[in-house]
Fold this sequence. Notes:
Order of helices and strands: EEEEE
Largest sheet: 3 strands, antiparallel
Amino acid sequence: MQFMEQDYVECPELSGKTIQTLRIYKDTRDGTDVQIELTDGTSFTCSLSHEPTVKASLYRGGVGTPQTIREYEI
C-alpha cells in the first residue's frame, strides 16, 4: 500500500485479483472494517473511521447579521 500526498490510497498489489468474499462489519466505535478474501488465498482489510471535530463560535446577536467575536476548533 502506498501512502503519498494524494487524496487516495492505491493498492496495486490487488490489481487483477478475483474477489471471493467481501464483508463490511458494523462500526464498533473504532471504525468500520472491510475485509476482502481473494481467490488466491490472500486477504485485504481496511478500517474506515471518522474522528469527531469540535467547532464553536462566540458571537453577538441582535438585529441584523450576528457579529462573530471568536471561533474555536479542536
